[in-house]
Amino acid sequence: MASEIELKLDVSREAALAIEGSPLLVGEPQVIDQRAIYFDTPENGLRKAGLSLRIRRSGEQRVQTVKAAGGGTAGLFARGEWECPVDGDQPRLDETNPIRAIVGDAVERIEPRFEVRIERHLWMVQEGASTIELVIDRGETIAADRNSPITEIELELKEGAAADLFALARRLDARAPVRPGVLTKSERGYRLSDEVRSSFKAEPAALDDGMTSAEAFQRIVYGCVRHFRLNEAALFPDRNPDTLHQARVALRRLRSAFSIFASIVRGAEAERLRGQLRGLAADLGDARNLDVLLDHTEAGSLRDRIFSAREDAYDRVEAVLATPSARATMLDLLEWTAAGEWLRNEALETDRCRPIRAHAEGALNRFRKKVKKDGRDLLTADDETRHEVRKDAKKLRYASEFFKPIFQRKREKRRSKKFVAALEELQEQLGGLNDLATAPEVLRLLDPGGHAAAIASDPERKARLIEAADEAYDDLIDAKCFWR
After folding, report:
1. Rounded to whole angstroms, how far apart are CA atoms 166 and 231?
2. pTM over 0.85
3. Angle at 333 between CA 328 and CA 338, to 5 degrees
4. From CA 405, how far away is CA 413, in angstroms rounded?
5. Which residues are within 8 A (CB) of 404 and not within 5 positions of it... i.e. 6 or more apart?
6. Does 1-196 carry CATH code 2.40.320.10?
7. CATH 2.40.320.10 residue ranges in the chain?
8. What was the pLDDT predicted at 300?
């Protein structure tokens, strides 16, 4: 079993050409034509188990590779990997890899599922004191009668420090736009047979009970960046409201992770990153507010003005996401998470090494206590107070979702389901109240001097939502804590 650390970067074909022709890449590359067949059961048993199995042919040589995705997401991978030479296109399924042990008798039904054909250009690059393998892959994924193009860059650390991967990535980005890549080639292949999706919800955090707090924080950040990038890549040109919403959810989850792990991620760089994430979320906020308004406005001149303003807001979102600063935010976050000063700060070592279950229990208790205290007077509270309770509830929900994989005993799972359901109901009602509070101000900008803002206030609906939120709050407080 070997380990690899690599940074995958999404690029356009034009960007790849610009980088390949730049002074950053010296000399002629090694050119390798690759053909890889990926295997799975008809029910995708390997995929569900977090494994991929391929046989890659380069020239006359064939190598079988089994990879375990583990927690390696958001472009930064630290995977288990098992390799062995094979004579043909029939996989070797024995004690040299974990497949038979994981899928059992289903191993007999493993079959070819799709093929990846790549022309790989490879350079060895010195960055600082590190040696990095840089490859530009161009090709396509093929499954039956469907295919999808591939253009991506991979930076694999051969010797040296992980931080140098990001230094090289920044130099590439200065030549042409690059963004963290989050799809493996196997995922691209499976997508050819999956139902087409326009938005992506958060996936379960890849945590286990044996982790430290630092390891868990890293896994959570990588998962959140993956969540953001999947939706960022799908946002244009369709401008689907759910896609934008999920991109904003990913940013909120990232910011919540900083709060949940505040005891180990202190420092100036952490605060700078939190500020950048907050600013990026705000840049997406206007478009989201207009999406909500549009969904609750009947056909007519006002709806037409809202739609026009919404299109302008999406133009601004598209422009913001194309800026170097937006791209740098994700690279900076990944670098700091993988190799930042917080990992070397001796004052934080005890908390970093704390078992994740103990950290999770403390964080969940802290956020629940805050929701309980601040939400006890929802019936008489003002809009600002209810908004603060809504933010507290979000942090509690995200913490509950992040830590769910480490509370898997039967009673914990049963209580977790009820607790999160009550929390979601509270969030839904408070979210409706926040939409009501936001709508009049947005409409005043679109309809100065008009009556739309007054109509949007809807006092009867507000009263119903406040009562429902108060009931949801009582249900949440009555729900048993799944972590105790």
Report:
1. 23
2. yes
3. 130
4. 9
5. 204, 205, 416, 420
6. yes
7. 1-196
8. 87
